[in-house]
Amino acid sequence: MAFIESLKELKDVDFADLDIQQIGVWPAALKAILLLTVLLVILALGYFFKVQDVSQQTQIAARQEAELLREYENKAFLAANLDAYRAQMVELDETFGALLQQLPKDTEVPGLLEDITEVAYGSGLSMKSISLQPEKTTEYYVELPIRIDVIGDYHDFGSFVSGVASLPRIVTLHDYTIKETEGALLNMVIEAKTYRYKTEVE
């Protein structure tokens, strides 16, 4: 009933005659609407100027928390496996040292040439020539190419390749050509490569 009466009062109000300085005599319904409007404006301004800023800061903090949590998990995993990583490092150092020992030093290259020559003769091949080619330097190691020219048959070639592979030094074979000779034998020219570790000076 009071609400209906308030609406009737609002119908009878002439908004052109309202004076803000006489707000005390305004109808109660009009004062309630004005109060509600001011309250809504204050709440809206509070949200845009304060709550929204806090919300953005909360989202940023949540993202930072997620990143820190991932970082913590990674570091916890590394810490939990630290002993295993150290053991792997020791194993890698030992393996690397063993591989370095298989790489000939400059003073050992003539001995390696003799070993390859012995393998060729032991395989039944006739050695036409064996010669060092110019070194090729890469980022971590130096290639020492060796040109080998031998005569024999396919079985001898297979035995030779197997013998070179079993040498105590690291030697790889590349770019071979096999041609017929005047007799029943074949001529094979092949490039062997051995490697040495690149020094700091190089």
Task: Please describe the topology of this protein.
Blueprint (H helix, E strand, L loop, with lengths): L1 H11 L15 H53 L1 H21 L6 H14 L3 E7 L3 E2 L3 E12 L1 H12 L5 E10 L5 E12 L5
Report on this model:
This protein has five helices and five strands. The longest helix has 53 residues. The mean pLDDT is 81. The chain is of the alpha+beta class and 202 residues long. The protein is rod-shaped. Helix 4 runs antiparallel to helix 5. The chain folds into two domains: 80 residues; 94 residues, 2-Layer Sandwich (Alpha-Beta Plaits), CATH 3.30.70.60. Strands 1, 2, 3, 4 and 5 form a five-stranded antiparallel beta sheet that branches.
Brief summary:
This protein has about 200 residues and is of the alpha+beta class. The chain has helices spanning about 1-10, 30-80, 80-100, 110-120, 155-165; strands at about 125-130, 135, 140-150, 170-180, 185-195.
Count of extended strands: 5
- Nearest-integer average pLDDT: 81
Q: Give a short account of the largest sheet.
A: 5 strands, antiparallel
From the structure provided, what is the oligomeric state, counting identical versus distinct chains? single chain
CATH architectural name of the largest domain: 2-Layer Sandwich
Q: H/E series, N to C?
A: HHHHEEEHEE
* CATH class bucket of the largest domain: Alpha Beta
Radius of gyration: 46 Å
Helix content: 40-55%
Please give the domain count.
2
Named CATH topology of the largest domain: Alpha-Beta Plaits
Judged by helices, strands and strand pairing, the structural class is alpha+beta
User: What is the CATH homology-level superfamily of the largest domain?
Assistant: Ribosomal protein S6/Translation elongation factor EF1B
Portion in strands: 15-25%
Shape: rod-shaped
Distance between the termini: 103 Å
**Poorly predicted ranges (pLDDT <50, ≥5 residues)?**
none
Tally the helices.
5
